[in-house]
């Protein structure tokens, strides 16, 4: 893990902050809604093609004890082949708290900067603590910022807004991305990280450092 403290790196961010008129217009233009993870979203495409639900296989039985965000509605034996959303973080709603999806998610940057934090439980052996992967998404590819990134299913992830550049103290337009989930997203395939799980996955010091990314405020 990088040697720095995770956290919002500019003042004026959080629920008491006011979003700019530019951001408010963007929210209205894209018809975004509040997301339970934090931030704003709008589903822009849901493939009409239905495919067999791969999460009903024996390999997925470990999910049985997980408390998912919503119960399955209707026919749970199929999924949309793919779904896509806009997702926006703003100074007023600057973080997406730890959660995971069963499906694979492709993220594409449109504007702004942010930091992603992934807990790589897929790499950890039984009894080991998971590696924390973190990276900046943005348009400065020469400095290693990412324009596109993929998060596999069952990986806990969180994200938060960064200033527009390293010398800035503001985010003028927020962080706007698209997320494409394969197979298509359902809240019955989504869960937030329970409060007691983070200390089990990472070291005690890392758990304290990342605790703020679990809360909804």
Automatic annotation (TrEMBL):
Xref: CDD domains: cupin_YML079wp
Domain (DUF985): residue spans on this chain: 24-193
Domain of life (superkingdom): Eukaryota
SUPFAM superfamilies: RmlC-like cupins
The name this protein goes by in its record: DUF985 domain protein
Organism (species): Mollisia scopiformis (Conifer needle endophyte fungus)
